[in-house]
Design a protein that fits this description.
With about 350 residues, the chain is of the alpha/beta class. Helix content is about 50%, strand content about 15%. The chain has 10 helices and 10 strands. The strands form 2 sheets. The chain has an 8-stranded parallel β-barrel with strand order 1-2-3-4-5-6-7-10, surrounded by 6 helices. It has a two-stranded antiparallel sheet with strand order 8-9. The termini are far apart.
């Protein structure tokens, strides 16, 4: 009897212990679930709030007159200076651009070598192109689009922190200007917010271009949609992507033109993309001096990949966003336009949307 009773007692103890362990495990699972939900809420609530704000930002009516000021630009591919395009193509381009607001052409003439040099063989037909454009499109300026990948997020690329590299870029700029270009358009990516070596390079380029009565323009990263967002994104992904608004202003004060690459925004639908462009337009206007041309990029290409959805990032949505941002921030600004990226990927629908919504 004692042995049986003891066995039953031990069995009850095991059951009680098991129930206690199960209860503790359930409480732990509930705590973990609550923490996970709280963490998810910390991410989703600000995101949903921000996306709602962008949707609201897309509402309203653009102010009358928020259309082209004749300060627009077009990015052109390398085929225009390597021999694949000829005078007939320039005449066709002239017909395309007639009665639009396009005043500047950014012609891909690189890329730069990682040491900042650029061989003359990279743009063998530049002088012929510039002469043909000046003949067929009087008043339109041709700028050498010089870019390269920076060694900011990988071991390979152009090292802006090296004085010798920056000096080589200045020499490359001097050589393209000697080839007949009206200016230099710099596009270096990924360029992290606050990069003082980039500012130093721009100071040198500005001295060089102005001494030759030429233009200095840059392709600029987007501005933080939320304060210090580039720091948060950079910490979590290793790719800061955005610039602070203050840094954008520092760059804008050093150049004649600044063109915002307002595409590849990760927005899933047109209303959110348009609201995002409206916000970017306002943020850029707030810190770009009146003496600098501010251009907002239009997506003249159609890709579907991470960061870009073709059905969301459309020309009509971008133009509406630009007009809304301009209307709310500085509707009468003269030195303002849009920049079309890029000629070789554009469709007839893109050109029609640009004309109907912006040129009007």
């Amino acid at each position: 009897m004692d042995n049986g009773s003891g066995q039953r007692d031990r069995e009850r103890d095991r059951i009680s212990s098991g129930e206690a362990d199960g209860s503790r495990k359930k409480r732990l699972r509930r705590r973990v679930l609550r923490c996970a939900l709280a963490g998810l809420a910390l991410v989703l609530v600000p995101l949903l709030t921000a996306e709602t704000a962008l949707r609201v930002n897309y509402t309203g009516t653009p102010a009358p007159g928020t259309t082209t000021r004749g300060q627009d630009a077009l990015w052109l591919g390398h085929a225009w200076v390597d021999g694949r395009k000829n005078d007939a193509d320039v005449r066709a381009l002239a017909r395309r651009l007639k009665d639009t607001g396009i005043r500047d052409l950014y012609v891909h003439s690189g890329p730069l070598e990682h040491d900042g040099t650029l061989p003359d063989s990279a743009y063998p037909k530049a002088r012929l192109l510039v002469s043909a454009v000046h003949r067929e499109l009087p008043g339109v300026r041709v700028q050498a689009w010089l870019g390269d990948q920076l060694a900011t997020e990988s071991p390979d690329g152009l090292h802006l922190e090296r004085a010798a590299t920056r000096a080589a870029v200045l020499v490359s700029a001097r050589r393209v200007l000697a080839a007949g270009y009206d200016g230099v358009h710099v596009d270096l990516e990924p360029l992290h917010s606050g990069d003082r070596h980039y500012l130093s390079l721009l100071d040198g380029l500005r001295t060089l271009t102005h001494a030759r009565h030429a233009l200095l323009s840059v392709a600029a990263h987007q501005i933080d949609p939320l304060p210090a967002f580039h720091s948060l994104w950079g910490t979590t992904t290793g790719h800061p992507k955005w610039w602070s608004q203050a840094y954008f202003g520092q760059v804008a004060r050093r150049v004649d033109q600044i063109a915002v690459m307002s595409y590849d925004t990760m927005q899933p639908v047109q209303s959110l993309y348009g609201g995002y462009v409206a916000q970017q337009t306002s943020l850029a206007l707030e810190v770009t001096p009146d003496t600098t041309d501010l251009l907002m990029g239009l997506p003249f290409y159609h890709e579907n990949r991470f960061g870009h959805r073709a059905r969301a990032e459309t020309v009509p949505a971008a133009v509406r966003g630009v007009r809304l941002g301009l209307s709310r921030t500085d509707a009468d600004r003269v030195r303002f336009g849009v920049a079309l990226y890029v000629d070789f990927a554009a469709t007839e629908a893109d050109w029609r949307a640009y004309r109907e919504n912006w040129v009007r």
